[in-house]
Amino acid sequence: MTVAEDQNVLISADSHVMEPFDLWQKELPAEFREGAPKFSPPREGGGGEGGNKPGGFDPHERLKEMAQDGVSAEVLYPTRAMRMFGLEDQTLQEACFKVYNDWIINYCNIAGDRLLGIPAISVYSIPNAIKELERCRDAGLRGAMIWQAPRPDLPLYHEHYNPFWEACQRMKMPVNLHILTGFSYHQTTGGGGGHGSLGVEAYRNSVNNKMIDGAQGLFDVVMYGVLDRYPELKFVIVENEIGWIPFLVQQWDYYNHRFGKVNPLPMEHDPSFYVERQIYATFFNDSVGAHLLSRWGQDNRMWSSDYPHGNSTWPNSRKVIERDLGYLPEDMKAKIVRENVAKLYDIKVPTLLSV
Questions:
Q1: Which of 214, 265, 271, 274 shows a CA-CA span of 20 to 30 A to 50?
Q2: Which residues 6+ apart lie within 8 Å of 24 measured at CB?
């Protein structure tokens, strides 16, 4: 690959597949099918969250659609399976996630250097979670997607997770916290943001509540010392955008300096130290956050397209990147659009994908 080609390579750090609506009804063991979430078939002509793009469920078509957008590789998250992070039944959740993980393994095997699947991991039973994570890693998947909004009795700072954090650190599998996963506002609104709800409160969900979920997850793993105890463990805050992060981290440092002697945090360094060392975050529609990158976050913030969802930058990703990141020096922009994600998931930057 020439230097000119390398400068044109984009890797989306947060894209999605669109699992077949009847995947679980077909593939779950019979005893689980009645209790599993059920999904309606796509409307005539497509519709739904990405249902009108064949690449959502067909990896061969996806590669064509990626090339149309100028994207050479993508980190892939589920769509329908995200709803299953709110299941209360441990065995049902584990069975549902195994079905999804098997499906995404087969999907990504078509082009393993370009389609980077993230497995969905149930963390009710940590021994079972570690076993499934090992299976998925051995099959070529990367990272561990767990709930961003945990069940209230299992906050992310709970000692329950310690063996899982250790395993993720040992296996070099980043922990991915994606919006709309777990126990939060989306359980009662029928989906994210305005989906399934009308009126002013839909906007609270789209902006305020989405940000709050990300902020609470970040607080728990930073301020309770998780990252101090597991210095090689990486977390990814996914699709919460990024403009809010430097303000919160600045305030955490400020109050640590102000009150740390009388109310010490369970860690050696300032919160910002751990955020810079171990926290990654994705963005795709955040011009404010993008324009802070010259001062902050260029080593661990990652551009994404959110393909094939309704507010994706596809097929205009390069125009959006130029709009929001065109002011950056080329070496800094390269980190954000490809190098940081390649470093995080330990992959080579792929060759340019052409139509």
A1: 214
A2: 33, 36, 37, 38, 96, 99
Residue 176 φ then ψ, to 5°: -110, 120
**Dihedral of the alpha carbons of 42, 47, 52, 57, in degrees to the nearest 10:** -40
First to last CA, the chain: 16
Q: What architecture does CATH give domain 3-344?
A: Alpha-Beta Barrel (3.20)
pLDDT tens profile 81-99: 999 999 999 999 999 999 9
> In the predicted model, what is the mean pLDDT of residues 172-201?
81
pLDDT for residue 127 is more than 90: yes
Instruction: State the Cα–Cα distance between residues 132 and 144, nearest whole angstrom.
Output: 10
- Closest by alpha carbon to 239, among 271, 276, 192, 197? 192
Helices 245-259 and 210-223 cross at an angle (nearest 10°) of 40
**In the structure, what pLDDT confidence band is assigned to residue 216 with cuts at 50, 70 and 90?**
very high
Tokens found for residue 199: 């009126």
DSSP-derived secondary structure letter, 149: B
C-alpha span between 19 and 42 (Å, rounded): 11
CA distances to 74, 118, 148, 211 from 215, rounded to whole Å, are 25, 22, 10, 6
Nearest residue to 290 (alpha-carbon basis) of 338, 323, 247, 335: 323
The whole-number average pLDDT for the span 277-302 is 96
Q: For residues 321 and 110, what is the distance between their CA atoms, to the nearest angstrom?
A: 28
Mean pLDDT score, 26-39:
95
Mean pLDDT of 183-209: 78
As a residue count, the chain comes to: 355
Q: Identify which of 115, 235, 102 has the alpha carbon closest to the alpha carbon of residue 178.
A: 235
